[in-house]
Specification:
Order of helices and strands: EHEHHEHHEHEEEHEHEHEHHEEHHEEH
Number of strands: 14
Number of helices: 14
Largest sheet: 10 strands, mixed
Oligomer: single chain
Length: 370
């Protein structure tokens, strides 16, 4: 999986193993709809997808004391792709002293599987133009593909707390090879799009960012057909809201990418609409970006579309099934055109909107998929 559109199979009846990790909170509610979509695709296109399930996050800590049990990791290694929900619980948000935390499981599986690149496509469905807080005339036509480096930066650097607990540090560290591999992946994707790439850093202040910029400048020489722009993170955050159409492919580090892509959810109208793929050279890991959202967990309010769109990414990137992937996206588009909404994307700008819960929304997508 060395490039964004790596194709591993053909449409002649694929046989693939998919591990489903629902995780915590609304992850357990929405992931079932991503799985159901994959089952329908398998039936309609005569593929054979076999499913297994694993635990991770808070539910895994409660069951085993480990946020990523060995059994789940072993299942992941034997799978062709992973469909993930979310991890997290208010218990950990309210007590930063806890040593074992759900996020440790997510960081570990990324490291163990070599998932160094997080891909987040930010594309607005036309019928959700009014769902964003940004003016429609600024949004319309925005189509951005983010590449966030996933296994370096402050999330994985050395962490320290002073003995008296009054100071702390997190080491922001990058190695040249880490920047090279994600930069090449981003440039390859840019070649298939508008041939524009923006690299985001903080090279005016941070030494790690100066290395990042130097390496991207070197890699850029291999892609003379792609226009390269370098932008500081603070300016990029502003421009993303001011003029999102100026961006095509964006590549950045782990911390900056985490923040920018959550900000970019406003372009799509809601976090509940954004899918992501974490990839490396083998197994792909697919998840919505919205988190566990325990405030609405169990209430049937969660938007299943990000999980469904994550399943579409899985079909495209890991399995090379582009027609099937587009079929899923078209089913989501048709559902939105019919006026169906979950609460997070309801606009109240039209009398033709029908507010649905998680299961009813997922069922409508299946109706349009068949």
């Amino acid at each position: 999986m060395k490039s964004y559109h790596s194709s591993t199979v053909t449409n002649n009846g694929s046989r693939k193993k998919i591990l489903v990790i629902p995780g915590d909170g609304i992850g357990q509610e929405v992931t079932s709809w991503g799985k159901k979509v994959l089952e329908v695709i398998a039936t309609n296109y005569k593929h054979t997808f076999t499913f297994d399930e694993g635990i991770m996050g808070h539910v895994a800590i409660e069951a085993t004391g480990n946020p990523l049990p060995d059994e789940t990791l072993e299942k992941a290694r034997k799978s062709d792709a992973i469909l993930f929900g979310a991890i997290g619980h208010a218990k950990y948000d309210n007590d930063p002293t806890l040593k074992v935390r759900p996020e440790q499981g997510l960081l570990k599986i990324r490291k163990e599987l070599g998932l160094y690149a997080n891909l987040r496509p930010i594309k607005l469905f036309d019928d959700l133009l009014q769902a964003s807080s940004i003016k429609p005339e600024i949004l319309q036509g925005a189509d951005i593909l983010f590449f966030r480096e996933l296994t370096g930066d402050v999330y994985f650097g050395e962490k320290k707390r002073s003995e008296d607990r009054t100071s702390a540090s997190d080491l922001m560290i990058y190695h040249k090879y880490e920047v090279e591999r994600i930069a090449r992946m981003a440039y390859e994707a840019a070649r298939t799009r508008k041939k524009r790439l923006c690299s985001v850093d903080k090279a005016n202040v941070l030494e790690a960012s100066r290395l990042w910029r130097e390496v991207v400048q070197e890699i850029a020489k291999e892609y003379p057909d792609v226009e390269t722009e370098h932008m500081f993170i603070d300016n990029a955050a502003m421009q993303l809201i001011k003029d999102p159409k100026r961006f095509d492919v964006v590549v950045t580090g782990n911390l900056f990418g985490d923040i920018l892509t959550d900000e970019a959810s406003q372009i799509a109208g809601s976090m509940g609409m954004l899918a992501s793929a974490s990839v490396g050279d083998a197994i792909g890991f697919y998840e919505p970006i919205h988190g566990s959202a325990h405030d609405i967990a169990g209430k049937g309010l969660a938007n299943p579309l990000a999980s469904i769109l994550s399943a579409a990414l899985l079909l495209d990137i890991s399995f090379g099934l582009k027609d099937e992937s587009q079929r899923v996206i078209k089913a989501v588009d048709a559902t939105l055109r019919q006026g169906y909404r979950t609460m997070d994307i309801a606009t109240k700008h039209t009398a033709n909107e029908f507010i649905l819960g998680t299961d009813a929304m997922g069922a409508k997508v299946l109706d349009n998929l068949n």
